[in-house]
Automatic annotation (TrEMBL):
Positions where N6-(pyridoxal phosphate)lysine occurs in the chain: 49
Reactions catalysed: meso-2,6-diaminopimelate + H(+) = L-lysine + CO2
Protein name (record): Diaminopimelate decarboxylase
Known pathway: Amino-acid biosynthesis; L-lysine biosynthesis via DAP pathway; L-lysine from DL-2,6-diaminopimelate: step 1/1
Orn/DAP/Arg decarboxylase 2 N-terminal domain span: 23-266
Gene field: lysA
Described function: Specifically catalyzes the decarboxylation of meso-diaminopimelate (meso-DAP) to L-lysine.
UniProt keyword annotations, A-Z: Amino-acid biosynthesis, Decarboxylase, Lyase, Lysine biosynthesis, Pyridoxal phosphate
Organism: Pelagihabitans pacificus
Amino acid sequence: MKYSDLLDIAKTYGDPIYVYDSEKIISQFHRLTNAFSGVKHLKLNYAAKALSNISILKLMNSLGSGLDTVSIQEVQLGLLAGFKPESIIFTPNGVSLEEIEEASKLGVRINIDNLSILEQFGSKHPDIPVCIRINPHVMAGGNSNISVGHIDSKFGISIHQIPHLLRIVELTKMNINGIHMHTGSDILDIDVFLYASEILFETAKNFKNLDFIDFGSGFKVPYKKGDIETNVEELGKKLSNRFNEFCKEYGKELTLAFEPGKFLVSEAGYFLTKVNVVKQTTSTVFASVDSGFNHLIRPMLYGASHQIINISNPKGRERYYSVVGYICETDTFASNRRINEITEGDILCFKNAGAYCFTMASNYNSRFRPAEVLWYDGKAILIRERENFDDLIKNQIDIKDLFATKKQQVGVK
């Protein structure tokens, strides 16, 4: 996309606004499938939590992707978007047995990550195939909040609990059709990933009726020019070879599965905001925009770095700015960042805004959530309207009559 296209979108639909480039999503999907072209059966299950707009889900479905879901609502969204139940895998954490049973009734594949629910589900539904999420006790990921495969993580069944797991499977006679792991996001060292994969292969040998092995995801994307990223081509070659070897040892052609989210949509996303105020203090020049961590929380929550470009003046002289939001507490997007000279009214573009950005937006400070636009076939298509005041209060219940009664009672006394 060109900066002029983004400026036109901001002018047409207002700001702040999220924009997603479908061409980038499609190219990332093909890049990953090509990297693992050496395996006979590959299944990419898009992680809906990264960006769950139904139009994005429909795009993924059109590419032949499956869907990785973590809530019953994401399952329902996937079905509404046209995914077949068998193309959806339900991988929740810490949910009730009732929610897992509800998903199972919809016909989706079930992935269980704790012994308690595994025993309960297996006792009641031994004929329903189940995938098991293993915790390989491998530390991977770019931030402690997104490293989910280490020994202190709440996710998965510990590899040290395999004997207990096998006992449950034996007693319930349940059918285990898949083994799964997810070590974390922003994986840089593919050798760490391959090491965790060996643990998964070793675990898989305990189960004789597997259909697939799911290696999770967490591939790192570049956040700025020259930034490092996961070498998916090298990983694809090495893991494909090892996977094919394991299938021969296992005596059956299995499906190699992944659940990419950020890798597919992060670089496709742009977040556009308008500069309200340029404020010079004794030590800093602040560029205050018409947004905040209510719309883009990742910099404050994860310390994430999003490249910021002044698309209204992309060739202007670079100066140092701290870009901040309008929320009533510390709300910093970037500190002392070199950006082309900013004036009030300019449009700033935050790159890598496709994953875990809109989906984590809120109405904090009673602000409206922004609109979303899909750039498809050279055209801007509105895929979510900007919220308004009616949206903000539609589920609230006005109890003014109750307080009026109380006021009258106080007056009588």
